[in-house]
Amino acid sequence: MKFIETRIPDVVIVEPTVYGDERGFFMETWERRKFAAAGLDWAFVQDNHSRSVCGTLRGLHYQIEQPQGKLVRVTQGAVFDVAVDIRRSSPTFGQWVGVELSAENKRQLWVPPHFAHGFYVTSEVAEFQYKCTDFYAPEHERSIRWDDPELGIEWPLAEGGEPLLSDKDRAALVLADAEVYE
């Protein structure tokens, strides 16, 4: 397993070692000792799985209390996955990292607690799976606008340019108006 630092050191790309032959493949997606050795010693309490069609954008989500760290991956299709640092005291506050995750490249992304997270589906359909370090708490969930000009996220939008959004994501605030972590 390779752990690749991004321009925000707390956000890490994980490349599993894949063993394959004519029968298919095998890979470890998480092994506590290897993650701990890489400085990612977290306990997970919940696994989630979503399926979305092309052009769907989910995010940017976070929980202001019970913040969730997430180990995310795609098992069918492809997405552009984004983590945004929303820790006001951080030197990388308001900066983002974007990574293509796909069933083909088998990459994962570690999104630490205190980060907003979202993804945009670039394939016909995508199945997205992730492990969380804390439980889902809808009363603490918040959203930041995917198109906040201050963030300047370079989403690879399909022709037409408008993603499919939930009502919650349409109503999201810009970072300057959002409740964030100190």
Description:
By secondary structure, this protein is mostly beta strands. The protein has one domain (2-177): Jelly Rolls, CATH 2.60.120.10. Helices cover 5% and strands 41% of the residues. The longest helix is centred in the N-terminal third of the chain and has 6 residues, at 32-37. The termini are far apart. The model has no long low-confidence stretch (mean pLDDT 97).
Record the SSE blueprint:
Elements: E1 2-5, E2 12-15, E3 18-21, E4 24-27, H1 32-37, E5 46-53, E6 57-63, E7 70-76, E8 78-85, E9 96-102, E10 108-111, E11 115-121, E12 125-132, E13 141-143, H2 167-170
Antiparallel strand pairs: 1-2, 2-10, 3-4, 5-12, 6-11, 6-13, 7-10, 7-12, 8-9, 8-11
With strands numbered from the N-terminus, the spatial order across the biggest sheet is 1-2-10-7-12-5
Shape: globular
pLDDT < 50 runs, ≥5 residues? none
**Helix fraction?**
under 10%
Structural class of the secondary structure composition?
mainly beta
Q: Name the average pLDDT.
A: 97
Structural domains: how many = 1
| Extended strand count | 13
Distance between the termini: 33 Å
Second CATH tier, the architecture: Sandwich
Multimeric state: single chain
Question: Which CATH class?
Answer: Mainly Beta
Please name the fourth-level CATH homologous superfamily: Jelly Rolls
Task: Please outline the major beta sheet.
Answer: 6 strands, antiparallel
State the order of secondary-structure elements, H for helix, E for strand: EEEEHEEEEEEEEEH
CATH topology: Jelly Rolls
Total of helices = 2
Strand content: 35-45%
Estimated radius of gyration: 16 Å
